[in-house]
């Protein structure tokens, strides 16, 4: 009985580690849910609005939202990046005075959420995410009114199930779940192995199969429930003390859901393994060890776990690199936080009247170094052109280079001679200039361009032509630095580049003053009989919001890698213990005879190492990963765990036999 209690304690200890991992996952899900629906301000729904097809101007859109918010008591709060700070946080802008606090706490507790007045939206798009912090009973009416006006509305309500589904779809989280399943399968295998002899004796004694199965599953399930309950209580107290008691109910809902799923899977696995490894009459007749039937299952679990670790290493590393790239992109967006674009709400006829004034405005902005250009086309956009060693060409001015290289301690661009550019690419640049240049300019304008490229190890951002809302990063971009925007490009081109965010201006106030000086503000346009409007909008908002989640996932990817490595180590150790138990009759006398552990374990270790190497080669051939070094390092870790596990397990079994516990 004491021996069986020891085995139960082993299961409790290992399952505590498993449920602790699930508690970390539950905390992450709770944090993600709180980021989407901040509980401190009572958010239960969020809306994604797009006014592109509605016909509303920016001013009209905000007026409509304010009117509906007041009438329906929704407590709408728009999410926007905190451009005024050096961090990567968000701020929450109320459309009306809702009585919300100026600050509120998050689950993660890193920074306080800031709530500001609607003046912050004076230079923002109405499109984007909104939280509903008030009454949601008339939210459907609000959605219907906007949809009838041509507004695209996407609604999402707070749901733990949705958060779970989202997490499962993320590769980094999926590896944690798969690792949990592998670990619980190994626990089931361990439990059945220690119960095998007693189960065989009960079968011989005539006990009903159903009773034997029920006893085995019940004792195993009780051990899991004790572990799950202990972890849930301790974790809930920790969350309440260090994060806030308001989050405990959500955290427990997530954790218990995960625990129920894992326990259900473990019970199902136990039933399947028990049925497929049931003692046979042949085994009794030939006096074979009771655990022999489990050997094939143990091999399958070890192989699958090892393949899982090796196969997920490269994708997890790629996801980490992608997250790191997003972090770099967000840092660049932060450098562009005070840059604004000009949004045109006009028709073609009126645009023709405004283009000369826009050209003069750009000339004025250049004189005070308050305008930046980045207009890029990539190799994929011009497949018929030989780009040579470059992936893209970007027309920029010095102001853009200054913005994206702010803070660099050493030069990160170097000049490129015309002779080092392929003739075909140089001709393409010449033709581009010929099409876009201002009339009356000298024909040798391309000779005034300065060509640069990033120094080795540097990646610089550029805005893609026709869509400057996204940044393209590269270390093989050819920069064509134009000496003057006004002198290089005609008014129509400048207007087009402004409308696509390829030309941006510095500062909201300064840009509005530019519009006024060149009679492009609303009042001056109305005096001319022009109904168009030019709005000044921050360009960095969307880019920062999109990059924030990727930055948040960086450490989560690390967590998944560590969790999978730990799970594989535990699963391998338990599997090695099963093997050592099966081979104890052989290992014990050999060790007593003075044979070294290396010689005793040599055959099984070498065999498994060879199989492991073959599996690694197969995975590499199928995946063809770019980061093959990561796969090899992960494989080396796995192959190192195998002999260590066998050595520890064999010694443990030897001591157990010596004390007559095995």
TrEMBL record:
The chain crosses the membrane at residues 172-192, 220-242, 254-278, 299-320, 561-584, 605-624, 630-654. Keywords: Membrane, Transmembrane, Transmembrane helix. It comes from the Bacteria. This is ABC transporter permease. It comes from Caldifermentibacillus hisashii.
């Amino acid at each position: 009985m004491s021996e069986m209690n020891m085995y139960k304690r082993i299961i409790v200890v290992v399952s505590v580690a498993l449920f602790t991992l699930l508690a970390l996952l539950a905390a992450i899900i709770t944090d993600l849910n709180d980021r989407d629906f901040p509980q401190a301000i009572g958010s239960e729904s969020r809306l994604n609005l797009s006014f592109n097809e509605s016909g509303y101007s920016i001013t009209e859109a905000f007026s409509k939202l304010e009117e509906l918010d007041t009438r329906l008591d929704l407590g709408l709060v728009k999410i926007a990046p905190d451009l005024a700070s050096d961090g990567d946080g968000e701020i929450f802008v109320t459309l009306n005075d809702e009585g919300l606090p100026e600050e509120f706490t998050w689950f993660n507790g890193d920074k306080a959420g800031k709530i500001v007045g609607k003046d912050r939206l004076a230079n923002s798009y109405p499109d984007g995410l909104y939280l509903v912090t008030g009454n949601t009973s008339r939210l459907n009416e609000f959605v219907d009114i906007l949809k009838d006006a041509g507004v695209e509305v996407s609604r999402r309500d707070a749901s733990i199930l949705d958060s779970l589904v989202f997490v499962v779809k993320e590769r980094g989280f999926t590896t944690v779940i798969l690792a949990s399943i592998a670990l619980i399968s190994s626990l089931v295998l361990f439990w059945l192995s220690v119960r095998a002899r007693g189960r065989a004796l009960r079968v011989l004694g005539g006990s009903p199969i159903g009773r034997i199965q029920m006893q085995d599953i019940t004792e195993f399930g009780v051990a899991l429930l004790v572990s799950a309950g202990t972890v849930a209580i301790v974790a809930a107290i920790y969350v309440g003390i260090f994060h806030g008691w308001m989050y405990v109910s959500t955290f427990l809902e997530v954790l218990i859901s995960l625990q129920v799923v894992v326990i259900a899977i473990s019970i199902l696995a136990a039933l399947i393994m028990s049925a497929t490894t049931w003692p046979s009459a042949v085994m009794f007749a030939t006096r074979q060890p009771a655990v022999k039937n489990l050997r094939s299952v143990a091999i399958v679990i070890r192989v699958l776990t090892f393949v899982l670790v090796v196969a997920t290493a490269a994708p997890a590393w790629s996801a980490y690199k992608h997250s790191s790239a997003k972090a770099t992109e967000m840092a660049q967006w932060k450098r562009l936080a005070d840059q604004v674009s000009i949004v045109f709400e006009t028709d073609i006829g009126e645009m023709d009247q405004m283009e000369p004034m826009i050209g003069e405005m750009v000339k004025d902005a250049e004189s005070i170094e308050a305008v930046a250009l980045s207009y890029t086309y990539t190799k994929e956009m011009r497949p018929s052109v030989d780009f040579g060693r470059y992936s893209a060409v970007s027309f920029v001015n010095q102001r853009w280079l200054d913005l994206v290289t702010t803070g660099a301690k050493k030069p990160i661009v170097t000049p490129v001679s015309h002779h080092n550019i392929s003739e075909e690419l140089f001709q393409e640049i010449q033709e581009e200039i010929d099409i876009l240049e201002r009339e009356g300019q000298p024909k040798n304008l391309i000779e005034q361009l300065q060509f640069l490229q990033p120094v080795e190890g540097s990646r610089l951002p550029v805005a893609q032509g026709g869509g400057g809302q996204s940044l393209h990063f590269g270390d093989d971009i050819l920069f064509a630095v134009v000496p003057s925007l006004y002198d290089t490009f005609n008014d129509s081109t400048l207007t087009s580049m402004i409308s696509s965010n390829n030309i941006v201006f510095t500062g909201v106030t300064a840009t509005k003053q530019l519009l006024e000086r060149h009679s492009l503000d609303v009042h001056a346009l109305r005096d001319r009989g022009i109904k168009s409007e030019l709005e000044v909008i921050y360009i960095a908002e969307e880019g920062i919001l999109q990059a924030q989640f990727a930055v948040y996932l960086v450490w989560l990817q690390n967590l998944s890698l560590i969790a999978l490595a730990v799970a594989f180590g535990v699963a391998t150790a338990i599997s090695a213990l099963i093997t050592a138990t099966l081979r104890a009759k052989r290992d014990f006398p050999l060790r007593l005879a003075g044979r070294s552990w290396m010689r005793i374990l040599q055959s099984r270790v070498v065999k498994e190492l060879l199989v492991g190497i073959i599996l690694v080669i197969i995975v590499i051939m199928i995946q063809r990963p770019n980061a093959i070094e990561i796969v090899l390092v992960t494989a080396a870790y796995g192959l190192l765990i195998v002999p260590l596990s066998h050595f520890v397990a064999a010694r443990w079994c030897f001591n157990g036999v010596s004390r007559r516990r095995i």
